[in-house]
């Protein structure tokens, strides 16, 4: 098994997983369907949380007992969590600017490459974290700032390389559209080829570097946007992903006890041999995805990053049919 889902708490772990999966899908729908929902979720709430975080750290520096014992201060100390939260939130705001055509920037052609840029940044944040783990714990273990035992080794290197390849699997950088209903930013060229490669890579990252959180942020969080894309929001995967990621990061940052020390807490088996197998699967998937993209581009005689390479495929045509 990949996770320690057995024993007296197994039923709570499965209930927790189902709740997270369903709540993320529901929260994504509320945020994407109306401008008000998006503004509240990705402008107002993050602003309030920023004040909250600054207050906690300022009070902790002054020795305030309540701040020193605050769950966010004690359990969510890694640079990665804050980098991911604000990078994902920046993506959500940029995506709303594109789909609602806010200001001159939302209407400009050059800004259509923003989704590629922000996704690449998010991927690189995780890649750096994987390489950090490799360096700190090569051939053994190291303890993160949050007290989690992590293994460092080739599995981190393989998955870091998979993440870099995954960046080049994003095609048609300027092929960004608003949906007819103005509820989605669409990237039609981001088909199942990229989505599957990304999901395998990102799951592996969480499995390598977030073994106490991967049950939720590696499975439920990845499946929620993927299910939405495949069944009712074709072409909107990247928006689904950014929205659910930002919402999850906000929740996890304020309520770390859900994952870290409750009946819902679920650990991976945290075995370097298992990590290695998962990392190799992610690497192979991304090599195959990039190879397929390059073959399609060569046959069409196009640049796969400046032009849309998946035109004519079922996924692309279903997504582009939704575009305004």
TrEMBL record:
Pfam families: DUF5692. The keyword Repeat does not apply. The keyword GTP-binding does not apply. The chain crosses the membrane at residues 12-31, 38-59, 79-98, 110-128, 157-178, 185-201, 213-232, 244-264, 276-295. Keywords: Membrane, Transmembrane, Transmembrane helix. InterPro entries: DUF5692. This is Uncharacterized protein. It comes from Bifidobacterium scaligerum.
